[in-house]
C-alpha cells in the first residue's frame, strides 16, 4: 500500500533524511541509503475504512521533528502526534492518538513499510516473549504473514524495534505494492476492539556501527523475457457482466461476456437467458450450491447447450471449506457434466490475487 497525495516536505535530521508526504513519513534514509519506505499512523474503523489525517503543524528543530495530526472521520475527532528523534545511528518515531468519543477499531497505530529490495534477505525476528527466529524476507509472494508476534526485526545491519502492541508482517506484493508491511494488532486478536485513548506506540530504527551494509545480492536474473509481435490482436478480456435479470442486456462490449451464475439461487436460469441475449460467447463462472452440486451443474450445462462458450469454471460456494475457489471436486463435477463438449475449463478464484495465492494448491491442472 502506498499513501501519498503528493504534498511533499523534506525533513533533514543530520545523517537521517525523510519526506513528509501529507501524513506519511516516507523514504527514510541513513547517509543516503533507504532504510524504510514508510512509517505512518493509521486509524481503521470496524469495516477497515481508513481515516484521512490532516497535518495541522510541523516543527523541525535540530535532531528532532514534531507533526500534529487531526482527523474528523466516522463521527469521531481524532488527534495525533508524531515525534521524530534522530540520535546518531538511531531514529525513533513515537505516536500518540486520542479520540473524543468511544470508538471501535480494527487497527489503530503505527504501520511500517520495508522496501521490496529486501526480498530474500536474512531476517532475525525477536518476539514479545524474547524468543528469536531466524528466517528470511520472502522471495516469492508469500500468501501468509512471514512473521508474527514481533518485537524487533533485524536485517542487513538494520534493526527495527516496535513498542506499544504486538506487531506482525504481511507481504504487500499480494496487493501489487512492492513492499513488506509490519503493522500493529495481530489479526489473530479479536476485532473490532474498543480504542483506549491515548494509543501510544513507537518504532525505533538503528543502523549498526559500521553503517548499513550493501544490500544482499539479488537472485541471478533468469532467462530474459522476449516480447514478439503477434499477428493476432491483443488478448481479449471479458469486460461485461450479467448477474441478475433485468429490463434487458446492455449493448455488447468486447469479444465475450463474463457471467457469474449462482446455482444456489432459484432464478439462476434467468441469468443465463439474459447473458445469452447479448449474442456474445459467454465466459461462465458457475457457483455451486452446497447440496446436490452434480445435479445443479448438469442442469446448468443443459441450459447452456445452445450458447457459445468462451470458457467455463465451477467454483465452491461461501461457507464451503474451499469457498470461492475452483478445486478438484468442483472441476470434476463440471467436466463430467460437459461430457464431450469442447469448452476450455479454467480454474482460480472469484475473489482476488491474495486468495488465489493462498489457495493455488487447490486448483487442479
UniProtKB/TrEMBL annotation:
Fetch the InterPro entries from UniProt.
ApnL_N
- Give the superkingdom in one word: Bacteria
Q: Which is a Pfam family this sequence falls into?
A: Apionate_lact_N
Domain spans labelled D-apionate lactonase N-terminal = 6-209
Name this protein carries in UniProt: D-apionate lactonase N-terminal domain-containing protein
Q: Which organism does this sequence originate in?
A: Candidatus Microbacterium stercoravium
Amino acid at each position: 500500500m502506498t499513501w501519498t497525495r503528493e504534498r511533499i516536505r523534506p525533513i533533514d535530521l543530520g545523517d537521517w533524511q525523510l519526506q513528509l508526504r501529507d501524513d506519511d513519513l516516507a523514504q527514510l534514509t541513513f547517509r543516503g541509503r533507504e532504510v524504510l519506505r514508510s512509517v505512518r499512523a493509521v486509524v481503521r474503523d470496524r469495516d477497515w475504512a481508513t481515516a484521512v489525517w490532516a497535518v495541522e503543524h510541523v516543527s523541525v528543530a535540530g535532531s528532532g521533528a514534531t507533526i500534529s495530526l487531526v482527523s474528523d472521520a466516522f463521527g469521531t475527532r481524532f488527534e495525533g502526534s508524531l515525534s521524530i528523534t534522530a540520535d546518531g545511528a538511531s531514529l525513533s518515531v513515537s505516536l500518540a492518538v486520542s479520540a473524543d468519543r468511544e470508538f471501535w477499531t480494527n487497527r489503530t497505530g503505527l504501520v511500517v513499510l520495508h522496501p521490496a529490495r529486501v526480498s530474500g534477505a536474512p531476517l532475525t525476528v525477536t518476539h514479545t516473549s524474547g524468543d528469536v527466529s531466524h528466517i528470511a524476507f520472502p522471495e516469492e509472494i508469500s500468501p501468509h504473514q512471514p512473521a508474527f508476534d514481533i518485537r524487533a526485526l533485524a536485517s542487513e545491519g538494520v534493526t527495527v524495534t516496535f513498542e506499544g502492541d504486538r506487531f506482525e508482517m504481511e507481504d504487500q506484493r499480494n496487493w501489487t505494492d512492492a513492499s513488506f508491511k509490519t503493522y500493529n494488532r495481530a489479526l489473530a486478536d479479536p476485532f473490532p476492539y474498543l480504542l483506549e485513548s491515548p494509543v501510544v506506540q513507537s518504532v525505533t530504527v538503528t543502523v549498526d556501527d559500521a553503517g548499513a551494509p550493501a544490500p544482499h545480492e539479488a537472485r541471478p536474473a533468469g532467462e530474459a523475457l522476449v516480447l514478439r509481435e503477434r499477428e493476432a490482436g491483443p488478448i481479449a478480456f471479458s469486460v461485461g457482466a450479467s448477474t441478475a435479470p433485468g429490463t434487458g442486456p446492455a449493448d455488447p462490449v468486447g469479444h465475450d461476456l463474463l457471467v457469474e451464475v449462482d446455482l444456489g439461487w432459484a432464478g439462476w436460469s434467468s441469468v443465463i437467458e439474459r447473458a445469452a441475449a447479448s449474442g456474445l460467447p459467454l465466459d461462465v463462472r458457475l457457483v455451486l450450491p452446497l447440496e446436490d452440486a452434480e445435479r445443479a451443474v448438469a442442469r446448468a450445462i443443459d441450459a447452456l447447450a445452445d450458447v457459445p462458450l468462451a470458457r467455463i469454471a465451477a467454483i465452491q460456494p461461501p461457507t464451503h471449506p474451499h469457498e470461492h475457489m475452483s478445486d478438484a471436486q468442483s472441476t470434476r463435477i463440471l467436466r463430467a457434466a460437459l461430457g464431450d463438449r469442447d469448452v476450455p475449463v479454467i480454474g482460480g478464484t472469484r475473489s482476488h490475487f491474495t486468495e488465489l495465492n493462498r489457495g493455488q494448491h487447490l486448483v487442479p491442472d
